[in-house]
Design goal:
Elements lengths: L13 H6 L78 H16 L6 H14 L2 H9 L13
């Protein structure tokens, strides 16, 4: 396909040259490289299966109609119960006199006899709950019965 080019016009005077736009030629189209078409591979057609003859209709025995039950409301779907989040645990260490530490062992044995095996941490947590449930006067009395000790790691003897 050939494109016709228009001849460029020249201005008649120098003043026209400034105002006149230069004539432009449309850009030449580049020939697109076309890929050769691939030959299609024709697969042989699958053999057509003969249609099955229609099933012979058997006469149906008269069926006694059952009374239609009233529309049952769909079961209410219980919302998924979110598992309670496990409380964040805090690891701590403390110093305790040997005599009070032995009391923990005695309390563990008492709990075992009551068929309630308990760990040291469970006994300490139960004691904290018991202290929290006390009124101010009882808490003051309980804290007065506990001697103050030096904090920190004990010296090796």
């Amino acid at each position: 396909m050939a494109t016709a080019k228009t001849p460029a016009t020249t201005p008649a005077s120098a003043s026209d040259a400034v105002t006149a736009a230069p004539a432009t030629t449309p850009p030449a189209k580049t020939a697109k490289a076309t890929k050769p078409a691939k030959a299609k591979v024709v697969k042989p057609a699958k053999p057509v299966k003969p249609a099955k003859p229609a099933a012979v209709a058997k006469p149906k025995a008269p069926v006694a109609k059952k009374p239609v039950a009233k529309a049952v409301a769909p079961k209410a779907v219980a919302p998924k119960v979110a598992k309670p989040k496990k409380p964040k645990l805090v690891r701590d260490s403390f110093t305790i006199p040997k005599a009070e530490y032995l009391v923990l062992d005695d309390l563990k044995q008492r709990a075992n006899k009551l068929a309630l095996p308990a760990k040291k941490s469970e006994l300490l947590r139960a004691g904290i709950k018991a202290l929290a449930a006390m009124d101010d006067a009882a808490l003051t009395t309980a804290l007065g019965n506990v001697p103050a000790i030096k904090t920190g790691r004990p010296k090796n003897d």
